[in-house]
Amino acid sequence: MSVTNSGSGVHDEVSEVSELPPSHRLSPGDWIKQNLFNNWYNSLITAVFIFAIAFALVRTLGWLFSSDFLIIRRNLALFMVGQFPRDELWRSWVSGYLLMGSLGIGSGVLWRSAQAVAEEKGLPTEPHSWPDLLRRFWAIIAVLIFFLSFARTVPPFVGLATVFVAFFISRELGRRFNPAMRTRGLFFAGLLGLLSLLVLAGTGGLGALTVGGLFGAWTLVEVRRYADERGVGAPETIGASRRVRRWHIPYPFKRRVGGILASRVAAAVVFCGVWYGLTSVDLGGFGWDDWGGLHLTLFVTVIGISTGLPVGILLALGRQSDLPVIKSASVIFIEFVRGVPLISLLLFSWLMLPLLFPIDLDIPGPLTRVMIVITAFSAAYIAEIVRGGLQAVPRGQVEAAQASGMSAGKIQRLIVLPQALRAVIPALVGQFISLFKDTSLLTIIGLLDFLETSAVANAQPEFLGQGLVAVTYPFVALGYWAFAYTMSKESRRVEERLGVGVR
Amino acid sequence: MLGRLLLLVIALVVVAAAGLASRFIVDRVTGRDTSDRPPPWRDLNVLSLAAQVLVFGLIVVVGSWLWSNFRDRTDDIGLELTFDFLDQPSGISIADNPLSSNAGIRDALQQGVKNTFLIILLGIPLSVLFGTFIGIARLSTNWLLRKLATGYVEFFRNIPPLLVIVFLWGAVFLNFPIGASPTAEAAWRPFGGWMIFSNNRFAFPSIVGLDNFAAYRLLVVGSIVAAAGVWVWRTRVFNNTGAPHRRALWSVATLVGLCVVFFLVLGGPFEFSKTTVEDRIWSGGFRMQMPYVAVMLALVIYTASHIAEIVRGSILAVHRGQVEASHALALNGLQRYRFVILPQAFRIAFPPLINQFLNYTKNSSLAVAIGFAETTSIISNLFGQSQPAPQLLLILMVIYLAFSLILSAIGNLVNRRLQLRGV
Amino acid sequence: MNKNRNLLRLLAALLAIVVIAAACGDDSGDAAEPAPTTTAATATEDTTAPAANDMAEEAEEEGGRLAAVVARGELNCGVNATLPGFGNIDADGNNTGFDVDFCRVVAAAVLGDADAVSYTPLDSTQRFPTLQAGEIDVLIRNTTWTASRDGNEQANFMFTTFYDGQGFMVHGDSSIQSVEDMSNASICVLQGTTTLLNLNAVFGDRGIPFTAVEFQSNDELQPAFVAGQCEVWTTDSSGLAAFSATLGIPTRILSDIISKEPLGPVVADGDTEWAQVVNWATMATVQAEEYGITSSNISSFADTEDSNIRRFLGLEIEGEVTEFGLGIPDDFASQIISQVGNYGEIYERNLAPLGLERERNALWTDGGLMYVPPFR
After folding, report:
1. Does residue B134 sit within a domain?
2. Structural domains of chain B, count
3. B100 located within any domain
4. In a domain, B8, yes or no
5. Model pTM?
6. Rounded (10°) angle between helices B389-418 and B105-137
7. Which of the residues A24, A441, C67, C155 has the least number of beta carbons within 10 Å of its own beta carbon?
8. Chains adjacent to B (≥3 CB pairs closer than 8 angstroms)
């Protein structure tokens, strides 16, 4: 069908047909009178603030034109990627393309499937328009371009332009995905994201493991589906033995075992194959101890949330559990981590974690240890968020599922968690933002994150003692702000779309 | 680790076997009919028991593994796991604090906790006040004010508090006039020198009691009692006659009037103290270290942006009927906020506000970045002197946990009083 | 009733687990002590999947830190990131400085590649805990050699690469002329340093009250001094000179020197072999300067007749290379000199541009303190 790119047309039609109340336009004079000088104290406030704004504007402009931005021009790469080897910068760019591809395809596929679902239910569909997307992400785009304006060579311009193009192409691709292939599309997007990590960090250790795991999981799902469709294993005869009835063995037991076994074996084979294949090729790459700057800040956040989420869900389930041991263990962990400042946890990672590794093992690098702590930290906060979602799931849902004979695990996996997680997406984004801001604390334990690059640049003999923090701090603040602001806008958008709080 | 896991499995099997066997024996001895009982692997009692035992066993195994690693490593580097070091001289000298660097670590830690408490004490009321104003401004009918407040909230909510602190300290307060000189002659002294602003210290006037200050204090307490009496009297008048009570006005007037009379009678029992700087010694008045002001104000600015959102949300959450009713009663804007909206809004806002207070407390640890000697800073200083890290970390975490627990306990207590009962 | 019974059962089971675990825990502890090989075996079994660690592990078992570094192919070096001349990060993200060059010296000696270093930037409060935990192989971060650090802090100090003393710096227009004028002054100082301890001790002894303004790193201290939050800045006088040369404001360094501050590489206690390697690699730079061998003229020494130099550079003498038995390649000195340079070159490259004279740090032949034992 032609639905894919006729979005804006639909929108226009709708607005033409609907009967909005006639808008009453005010003349500028009336508007000013109504909104700025409608009574004596508002007039006073307006006057005072106009004066203050004018003053601030003059001072800011004066500062902008009198300051020397050489420190930023010279250190742009330091701000962006820290100490990442400069002759390997292509890795950052390639990983940027892959990441953008992943984001593009992922968002395109999600949009497409949401569209399909909406059509099916006859709900109003959300049109797709690039200007709209631009408007939603203007802060990040503007700040990236602003950063780029300090570049002294051509490659960054080309690089950034191609990164945008990569996103454009992949999103268009994603939008053309068959909605039925949603899972596969998302899987592909996730794979691209992991590949971007592989390009940066090489195949050693975790990278290959996660890619292998992803392929394994995919195989598992696909083979299971195939087995279910084809009905692997002969169907059991109707007259089940007394033994089966006595021990509550479900009827299609043999069939399911066949499918499960086959899928697991296949998954294990695929996992081992991919893992072995990847580790045998050396992509080079740099362990993440070489990462720095804005790049480090972003990655620590993303990884922290993605590793914290599963742990957090488990903790939330544990806290809701009826079993005293599991419940109390979860409560103690969550309340402890939430009760202490992140600095103390980071100091823990710096001073205490090394002492917890077996004595005959090399201690992992600082960033690895920080990631362990950040995972625990975000898991504890996510657990509380998810708990809120779990409590919001109506009790009747669980009871209905129990009545239909589902196992406890299935009830959680298929009934409770999907509803709970959907309800807390905005709060999760909020947690993402706050973790993004919290990563600035890495400077306190001396990691070269975005904030610390400012200090390092100011310590270079060339820029020492000139009070240039007044230049670098606003620069850094702008970077933090753009990402956090966009995320919070997005979370509010999701919140409105989900209708949380409206019901 | 592997050995321990193996032991766990063996232990689990033994326990399970023992449990099942005992169940079997008990069943046999008591001769109970078990035909309707599900098999062990479908019996909820058994399953929940098994799950808990398994989790507990895993925790024990992992915990003991970590502990033995920890002991190996600490033995290797010769770290002693006692708290004796707390009595050693700290080697820390805290600015504007008489504590000697030869005093024990215990005493230095006490001063650190005191300083953390000072950041909280002044900062939390300020941020509530400021946040409430911004929150109300976001709903103002004045377009400019509304947009400014929105801009403020959107900006400060989305940058890290640490950045606010280092910016305020490094790019604002450090550029104040120099205060570290024999008489701080360069410092800015508005209000006839009653206040001093410099990049070293801030100073404000304070009250110093003279000889008969004790008597005055007693009389002030008496005036407060009298003012309370006036309050009760006006309320009664209002209840009986319906005449406007104006009890706030009446009682404040009583209080102020009495205080002034006593002041005159006693011939000035106290005087305002002005800070003077001589020979690099700041004396008199109420003096604050610049880093203290920087941390406190930065956290107020940051926290206020969050509190503003809470306040705004709570005001919007007040039932529309209430606002409409207040319009119908012809209350003006101030009255509407004072008597109808804010009391109800704060009831809604209080639980999330407690959360913000907790965040504020935890964020106060960021003072370490600009060298204000609060708990985290003192402890990090001790790390630098190679005092034992595990014990110090434990102390650090326990201190903040205590702060968090106390604060949330107080918050919950207040919240319980605040919420409507029987609804 | 039913619930109570369940709880009882739970408690009983947990108790049983604890008892068994405790008993087994003791067993495993006893078993581990007489036969450490068994634990090693289980450890390696445990981590079959990530293969990378195994080699390092085995190396550590066999030959301590030296073998571990060789197996890792990289030297972990703790450095300063915010002290001009000694340790900095430049715009290209490279660590540079006097101390950093000595990390490169050690890497060149041990691994034959001066670039095979992984730098860990440390502030003054972090350095000893990090060294003790074994996370870094060597700490080269303007660290002062003191008895209590050698004793209490399990540190092992190597050949002093820089002889320093604690000095004071004030703004150019300050009225302070000497320590005696500093009564009640605000003094900027770094936490966790000998500087701070000296300050407390010396001012305490002389009965001079002062206000310490303490910071964790130079990032914050330096702007605080420039802006005048504190009147005086005290640290090693080399650091003061470095900052004075780069700050770009008029400053004055007082003539008072209140302590001796010998700075050099530090390793953790308990591994003599590794300590010797670091020590001799460091000293080789001084010996090279004494022989007049630099990175540019080293090739001309390939056919020198001087047997001392031949021995030093690991060249054959009558068909035989002298083995020092340090456990590192015999040509480590030539690797150091060709890749990093001799002591004089390192000094010229990093410290001379800041206006620091050699003085005490000149060769003993020039009246300085740089004197190394013979390489034979």
Report:
1. yes
2. 1
3. no
4. no
5. 0.84
6. 40
7. A24
8. A, C
